[in-house]
Amino acid sequence: ARGATNIHTHGWHVSPMDPMDNVHRHIEPGETWTYEYDLRRLKLGSLGWYHPHVHGLVAEQLWSGLAGALDVNDPNRSLASYETHVMVLKDIELSNGEPAGYSATSDFMMGKEGNTVIVNGSVNPVLTLRPGQVQRWRIVNASTARFYKLSLDGHPLHVVGVDGGLLDKPYAQSTMLLAPGERVDLLVKASSSEGVYELLSLPYSRIGMMMGGSGLNPQQVTLLTLDVAGSPVDDALPEHVRLRARRLTPDLSTLPRRSFTLRMQMGRGTINGYDYDSRPYTITSTLPAWGPSYEIWTIQNPSGMDHPWHQHVNSAQVLAIQGGDAAYRAFHTTVPGWKDTVIVPRG
């Protein structure tokens, strides 16, 4: 039914076989369902989010605004003193006061992008920092299709966490690219002098010429305004965040390997030629009794559009990326971060 919905957690350790995260559950209009989660396996310091996952209605319901952040706290003291803001990035287009219809073939094939970008429901909100103050920004891309290439006027972005939790230390980046579903944990140290600065989403083309254009809405967008004012302070950035965060160093030659190819065929998305409606592509992995096991997955995207690849429950470290944004590639293939959503560049 078109009015059916449900709740799906993205980034939490909740099995899709669990009744609480069963994407096939349809809660009909007027029906009540109570969600209860076992949180013992959650990664401390991680940032997840939730949205509906009714097959065939996911994009439309997310586009209309059904999403929110899931902030998992952490006893880590290195970040406890900083003023913290959770920011949910979303784009929308309104028609007669309602979200514009999500029905055109191109909406599903190319992804729908709106003419207005909001942060926690507000257009270009103002955030105040004192000169020299450090704030922590935990950011979710909750858009259905829009990529955000974050950049802050006159300030580096100090990355301290990604989808699966905190990193070992801050990493200074001039830009940070987020596909739908990706999250990032940032520290921002305000300029020592008063002024007004903009958090921007820089132009980024997720669609190449072979798809009929240079990308949907690749213009620069102001997300929020940073007002640096008041009595100065001199907050220090932490030297370390999560000391035990490490990149894995297994013998790659001994690990099982799998390959996945993403395609759009007859208006439908497939993995290795299998369509979710007709016959989902299925693999089985063996978990040994003595602990975790690892596999090497290669995801190929021969299409003309960047695709975010998302896996539930089991996060990954990125070994290599071919093509795409150079800063994104360099960052995620070197930091000790765990990802559940990764951009697979077009081609």
Would you kindly provide a written description of the structure presented here, covering whatever features stand out?
With 347 residues, the protein is mainly β. Helix content is 5%, strand content 33%. The chain has helices at 58-63, 105-110, 326-332, and strands at residues 8-10, 47-51, 68-71, 83-92, 94-95, 98-99, 116-119, 126-129, 134-141, 148-152, 157-162, 165-173, 176-178, 183-189, 195-202, 221-228, 257-265, 268-271, 274-275, 296-300, 307-310, 341-344. The strands form 6 sheets. Strands 7-4-9-14-11-12 form a 6-stranded mixed beta sheet, with no helix packed on it. The protein has a 5-stranded mixed beta sheet with strand order 8-16-15-10-13, with no helix packed on it. A 4-stranded mixed beta sheet has the order 19-18-17-20, with no helix packed on it.
Summarize the helices and strands and which ones pair or pack.
Layout: E1 8-10, E2 47-51, H1 58-63, E3 68-71, E4 83-92, E5 94-95, E6 98-99, H2 105-110, E7 116-119, E8 126-129, E9 134-141, E10 148-152, E11 157-162, E12 165-173, E13 176-178, E14 183-189, E15 195-202, E16 221-228, E17 257-265, E18 268-271, E19 274-275, E20 296-300, E21 307-310, H3 326-332, E22 341-344
Parallel strand pairs: 4-9, 8-16, 17-20
Antiparallel strand pairs: 1-2, 2-3, 4-7, 5-6, 9-14, 10-13, 10-15, 11-12, 11-14, 15-16, 17-18, 18-19, 21-22
Shape type: globular
Please, how many helices?
Answer: 3
* Share of residues in strands: 25-35%
The whole-number mean of residue pLDDT values reads 92
Query: Distance N terminus to C terminus?
Result: 37 Å
Number of strands: 22
